[in-house]
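Re: weekly structure request thread

Next one in the queue (376 aa):
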Amino acid sequence: MKVHIRRRQNSAGDKYNLSLEVYSGYSVSANGNSKPKRVTAKLDYYLYTNPKTPQQKNHNKEVEKKVEIIRAEKEKEYLNNKYGFRSEIKAKANFIDYFAKLTDERMESLGNYGNWDSVLKHLKKYSGENISFDDVDITYCEGFKNYLQKIAKTKAGQPLSGNSVSSYFTKMRAALNKAVDDGIILTNPSHKVSTPKPVENEREFLTLEEVQALFKTECRYDVLKRAFLFSCLTGMRWSDVNNLSWKQVQKEGENWKINFHQQKTRSLQYHYINEQARELMKEMQDAEERVFVGLRYSAYMNTALLQWCMKAGISKHITFHCGRHTYATLQLTLGTDLFTVSKLLGHSEIRTTQIYAKVIDKRKIEAVNTIPKFEL
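Done, posted below.
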């Protein structure tokens, strides 16, 4: 890999415009002809073609020095990348700014963006807004883990949950993995630090009888009732239900199908729904129209959901995401195999779905133990 300084005379003939030319070998065409591989980058410098005055001669001398420094630095950077040496310039870059850029790239997925934005805020609280990649070492990563576990607080002033600690640390690790891919750092220092283990929380869900009770009970917001029950019957997340538009809904023979990109994973999902789920969507509107118009995330909606459940005789702490849990557990309870449920939920790994199987096993054990002990 060689970097050369090239001169090109301007139209007036009195100056040379300068550029860097990177030569990286030859490419061979289909007919066997070889052609040099070159990349040219223009520089904001020029030389006088025939310097006459002392000022022009001094100008040429200074420019030649500057351009040679640029050429040498560029060649060094190419060699570093080729042989696995990190770029000193990149290593001085601001890690917080880099993390903020990765966060902004997730803007389309509000849930994912919100999580990354939370990590960004905690990183700033932990180390300030100016921290170079040079300073992001094992000690820094250990310190961030300790900060999350012992110092960081939620908006309500409470310590972070075990799951949040694990999730936030994992996102910092993901950012550093990306930095390795981008050639900013050679290795990810967080791999030398053990990841905080998430806590396996009890997943709240509704039984068939409880879902039936909700169908029969009025809710303050009809759109909330329809959307939540739709989630119970399809397993779709809040973000996907909220963003669902009529252009994603198709009829395939006698069946209805939804084609959508999951907001959380961005993966394409082809999801068949039953007739009752289709009825909850009401009459089809314009293609760009949202299916559940008026549905929005707010404290009022969350409160209304809880009040509706209480009115139906359900004392569990139900959130919208419980609709997805309900769908998974009902499918498994009714005999659908784990692999199929995994595909219906859009899980990339079946072990994620196995969490629901554990819930079913626990219910089976509870059911077995309801039989009283008989006297001998």
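Residues 54-83 form the longest helix (30 residues). The chain has three domains: 3-83, 91-192, 208-368.
Next request, please.
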